[in-house]
Amino acid sequence: MEPMDASISDTRNMETGKNQGNAAQVESFKSRVDDMFTKVDKLEQKVNEVEQFYLTASKKQLNVSKGSSIVKDKDKERHVASVKKQQQDASRREAAAAKRMQELMRQFGTILRQITQHKWAWPFMQPVDVEGLGLHDYYEVIEKPMDFSTIKNKMEAKDGAGYKNVREICADVRLVFKNAMKYNDERRDVHVMAKTLLGKFEEKWLQLLPKVAEEDKRQEEEEAEAQLDMHLAQEAAHAKMARDISNELYEIDMHLDEVREMIVQKCRKTSTEEKRKLGVALTRLSAEDLSKALEIVAQCNPSFQATAEEVHLDIDAQSESTLWRLKFFVKDALEIQGKSSASMGGNNTATTTNNNHPTTTNNNKRKKEICDAIAKTAKKKNKKLPLD
């Protein structure tokens, strides 16, 4: 093994720049490889992002209304705008919806004025004077006090604390009357006044309700459509990202092939003697390492069946790049085997007679079959291939 070790060592010295004549070329190779590593790291991040998107999308269902014909009949293969444009469209839709809701609130304000101008509305215009009237149990009976002055102030609020939907105002108006009816006995005047005004309010509310329901449905459909558009835009963006990743990976593969061929051209050709020694070295590998060596051959030669029952490895038929990769792998594997053997007292031969280790027996049997096949192939070419 010493001549083979020496040849590999010489080649590695050349590749790491110890050969001063090729130092510049080696540095160029290293720089190109470093660039490719950087690109691969970035591609890995993009791949993780795409995977995370589709993993989340598969678990998350869109909130699409069953009655929305707009969403149901949408052509999902149409052109999908960018995510940024979808966000801009969403902002415009929200602004338009807010403007329509303001108009409904204005119309509701007309109803509210009619109710508050009624001659029986005066008890409900201001918060209940709990202390002044001595109503010590009021807060025990009434959970949420409400009055028309509070509603008016909230309707006019400009700091974002106001009502967002006309149904919120409707609920508070009802609360004003229901609180009065709940706290006061039905025979008392305040109870009767509240019940009467609540009836008048419900009549007027029914007149506005169709417009409110129409707006609710419109907002629901727009929200469902916006969610679908956003999802499709994100899906299109990630699909494009996936295509870009594929193209970049193809370019990296091309660059790797170029670098590999350039390095192979700089390396001297493997001699007949070195091929013979490589064949000998292969027979000294463990079953596991021998399988890995055959996988190296299969990577460069897709037609080679590394896991077949009977393997015929023709050393002479392998490319220079395959031979050099095998040399480096075999040398490292044998060095590790040597260290392992030394740490175990020099005995690293696996037994094949121990019935408690059938896997070891099978691996050694597999190894013997492959080594015999290598030797058989070499003999066909009239080469002597000594086996251990």
What's this entry about, in short?
The chain has twelve helices and no strands. The protein is mainly alpha-helical and 388 residues long.
Protein described:
This protein is mainly alpha-helical and 388 residues long. Helix content is 70%, strand content 0%. It has helices at 2-15, 23-59, 69-72, 83-116, 138-141, 148-156, 166-183, 189-266, 272-283, 287-300, 320-343, 358-380. α10 runs antiparallel to α11 (320-343). The radius of gyration is 41 Å and the shape is rod-shaped.
Low-confidence stretches: 14-19, 61-80, 346-361, 381-388
Helix content: 55-70%
H-E order? HHHHHHHHHHHH
Whole-angstrom Rg: 41 Å
Roughly what fraction of the amino acids lie in strands? Answer: under 5%
Specify the structural class. mainly alpha
What keyword list fits this structure?
single chain, 388 residues, mainly alpha, 0% strand, rod-shaped
